[in-house]
């Protein structure tokens, strides 16, 4: 037993003489030191035939492999959206001064009748009729503008069936409004429909007008629409004055 302890202590002292170094930064192992120390220590306890000769070979063939998680997500491409064109109404300041001032003055017959009714707190059929008649006349004027815009040579609007037939559409609505003027509310509704159809045709179906003219058309149509709506509401709110 004492002899076995002495042999074991000698083996331990010999193992301490051989360094076992590992470099974490470069991942290298001193295989030769490990191989020699294992050979000598195992030879002290076991016969030579018991030691596996392939063990150092297996140790020398140790490899380190780097693994990282794979990313299968495709990089999404940033879609650049085209810039939206400015709204048509924003071209209103670009209108020629004479056209702008005359258009603003032409809004007075639309605004004055309902304004007077609100001030007097009475519904006056004569004022409502003058407002409707002015709206019908304005529809006829819009038809003439389209016709005159298509006739000159070099105009973007050609004098074809599409342009000339659409120029007659507002005239038809104004004619029907005058025919049904005895029913004043129905006549006003016809004028409103005619203004809406004319605006739709000029902005979307036949977009040949300059942008400033389209802005003026939007302004006039909105003012006329709200003034007619106010007149129809005042008929039910205020008492009627004068002959029916």
UniProtKB/TrEMBL annotation:
Residues annotated as transmembrane: 99-120, 132-149, 161-180, 187-209, 215-234
Protein keywords: Membrane, Transmembrane, Transmembrane helix
Stored InterPro entries: DUF3429 (IPR021836)
Name under which the protein is recorded: Transmembrane protein 69
Species of the source: Urocitellus parryii (Arctic ground squirrel)
Gene name of this polypeptide: TMEM69
């Amino acid at each position: 037993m004492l002899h076995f302890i002495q042999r074991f202590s000698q083996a331990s002292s010999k193992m301490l003489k051989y360094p076992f170094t590992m470099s974490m930064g470069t991942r290298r192992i001193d295989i030769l030191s490990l191989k020699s120390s294992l050979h000598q220590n195992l030879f002290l306890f076991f016969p030579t035939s018991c030691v596996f000769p392939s063990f150092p070979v297996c140790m020398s063939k140790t490899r380190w492999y780097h693994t990282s998680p794979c990313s299968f997500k495709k990089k999404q491409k940033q879609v650049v959206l085209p810039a939206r064109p400015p709204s048509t109404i924003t071209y209103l300041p670009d209108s020629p001064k004479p056209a702008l001032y005359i258009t603003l003055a032409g809004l007075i017959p639309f605004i004055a009748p309902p304004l007077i009714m609100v001030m007097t707190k009475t519904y006056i059929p004569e004022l409502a009729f003058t407002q409707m008649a002015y709206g019908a006349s304005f529809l006829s004027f819009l038809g003439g503008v389209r016709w005159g815009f298509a006739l000159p040579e070099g105009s973007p609007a050609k004098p074809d069936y599409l342009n000339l037939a659409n120029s007659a559409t507002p005239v038809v609505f104004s004619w029907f409004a005058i025919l049904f003027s005895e029913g004043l509310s129905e006549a006003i509704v016809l004028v409103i429909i005619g203004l809406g159809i004319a605006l739709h045709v000029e902005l979307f179906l036949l977009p040949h007008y300059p942008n400033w003219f389209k802005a003026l058309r939007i302004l006039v149509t909105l003012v006329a629409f709200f003034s007619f709506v106010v007149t129809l509401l005042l008929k039910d709110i205020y008492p009627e004055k004068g002959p029916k």
